[in-house]
Design goal:
heterodimer, A: about 260 residues, alpha/beta, Rossmann fold, six-stranded mixed beta sheet, four-stranded antiparallel beta sheet, 10 strands, about 25% strand, globular, B: about 290 residues, mainly alpha, MetI-like fold, 13 helices, flat, transport (chain A), ATP binding (chain A)
Amino acid sequence: MTTPKIEFRDVGLRYFTPKGETQALADISFTVAQGEFVSIVGQSGCGKSTLLSLLAGLIRPTDGEVLIDGVPVTGPSPQVGFMLQQDSLFEWRTIAENCVLGPEIRGDDRFEARVRAEGLLKRYGLGDFLDSKPSELSGGMRQRAALARTMCLRPDVLLLDEPFSALDFQTRLSIADEIGGIIRNEGKTAILVTHDIPEAIAMADRVIVLSRRPGRIKSIHPIAFPSHGDRRPGSFAARDAVEFPSYFKTVWEELEVHVE
Amino acid sequence: MSSDTSIAAAPAASAAPARTERAVVPHSRQYHAWLAARRREKLQIVAAQIGLVVAFLVVWEVAPRMHWVNPMLTSYPSAIWQAFVQMVRGGELGNHIVVTLVEVVVSFLLAMVLGTAVAILLWMSPRLERVLDPFLVVLNALPKIALVPIFYIWLGAEGSIYAVAVAVALFITILMLYTGFRQSDPNKIKLARTFGATRRQILAKVVLPSNVHTFIATLKANAGLSLVGVIVGEFQASKAGLGYLIVYGSQIFRMDMVMAAIVILGLMSLAIYALIQWAEFRITRPAKRGG
């Protein structure tokens, strides 16, 4: 058997405060194959964002191991790209300058990075905005610029932490479709964290449902759309597929959303 | 200047289209009337301001001359002007101004450089910050002017002036800058960390550039504070400077001299403030391109 791209091996995380210990995550074990797109859903506070921070090497697990390509994660690596909820573009830099932030911090060749950034921005439809400031861009454009900034380090694993939730509904649907397409075309492995069930289903090959705190894996749902043949539909088309409502119903029930 | 909203409220019908962006409509009669009313109000405000100054000067001139008040205590504008001209002719005034100005600029720069260095150090080492925090709070709250006699004994006349001015401005610089650093956008810092940024890189790429406005606010606060420090230092002991002129003038009961020095001080602080305002405009303008 080949090494999975990403592997969580009995991962647990506890937070320590003067008041005591909090178990945030417990017994997390799953693997993600190369090129696979996995969504993680769960209610707020269930530790789903923490999973991504573990993968990005921002925090260490208190129990178990997180592996990428079979190697334990010990710190941030250029191999892993992180897209956050806020685009966090630096308002004092131009779009192109924002885009080369990663290579700049990594100490890569500046000229090469600049060429790569411009190529990415042009491909994402921002060719006319290289020297614009972030304030001149719309929300959707800013999120595409943020994707270009993430891609500029050429990661092969992408972590998406609710990257569309700050956008208005219409922009959100089309940007999710667009970015989902880009990630699939480039064959990246991706993990999306969201509380939006339709988004999770529409974008992913598998949906992982986390339980309430401490976050445990409650169930894993493979998502397939046979009605669209062999090719997986884009996230926009997936929402119209005949299989979609039943996936939604299953995940919804799994989440046991109580109105409190 | 800021009266836009208050006037706009009255003829609401014509003001509304001007607020919604890009809704260009042919200018109506009411809109012209509104513009005219706005211009009139602006003019009235400026006129009132000038009138206030003129009235103040007239009363100040007339009251002592008519012996409603003792001219020995208040002096009057024409006498102040004469004292000013006389001191300029004697060449001493220029000297006093230069002495004070040099002291202010030097201590201002010292406080800025030292304060920035300490704020950076505190941000770089949270543990150091936790150790020093209570001391900084006490030193900031302590009235630095109480230290003047000590500085005088330790450093002499010249040195104590700089010491007071730096002491007055330094701690507020540290606290303002450090607070600004602490309030840097956590999302931007997290982003930099996902790229593997070290603390030093986070400082250089996120914290410092996002705190330009904090820096300018600190500059403004410091300009005033170093001036206060210098004048207090000059009060204690000095051979020249505007603070010296004020003390000397009051001792020989030359109120015209005292008042002239105070007016010049006012103009000096205005000039320093305008200079910083200009610098702020130059620094932030490119960033605000396109709003």
